[in-house]
Amino acid sequence: MLFSLHAAELEFSTEAPHHAHDVEEISAEAFGPGRFARAAARVREMTAHAHDLSFVVCLNGKVVGSVRQTLVRAGERPVVMLGPLAVRPAYKGQGLGAALMGQAADAAKAAGEELIFLVGDRPYYMPLGYMPVPRGTLLMPGPVDPDRILALPLKPGAMDGFGGRISARIRA
User: Fold this and answer.
1) Inter-CA distances, 131 with 34, 102, 146, Å
2) Global confidence as pTM
3) Whole-angstrom Cα distance, residue 74 to residue 41?
4) What is the C-alpha to C-alpha distance for residues 1 and 12, in angstroms, rounded to an integer?
5) What is the dihedral of CA 63, 69, 70, 76, to 10 degrees?
6) Average pLDDT per run of 10 along the chain, which is 172 residues long?
């Protein structure tokens, strides 16, 4: 971990409903109004994110970063879509995003999930264990650069048979 902030000032927790406004504000800062046109946003419109698999980091009680995860299907297979991951500009480059990613992966694995995918920058996510998904593997509900679709297997063999149209999944 690379926190240049005093670690005692930071609090990581699952996202709660009262964090929603701050999380949306951070996403707006990070991605701007164009974020709603992206394929990942289309997926998030299908179903709400899983609060117990989504996290925030607070500094002195103020949300400075967040990561959300949404339960979806790839074809008939249950998977998790990660995103958005966002950290307020003043706190970027301090390891908060990577720490949130680690918590998200640990929570998904503990919940019995087998695979997480996202749409994002290879140079950022590949050092965190994500790998490129072969072109044509996933059918997203909107335009997406297939070279930006990455996946993190949470157990051996989790990439086997991964693919299909992305759709909503309701947790049983």
Assistant:
1) 25, 15, 12
2) 0.88
3) 16
4) 13
5) 180
6) 60 92 80 56 79 94 93 95 91 92 97 96 96 94 89 96 91 64
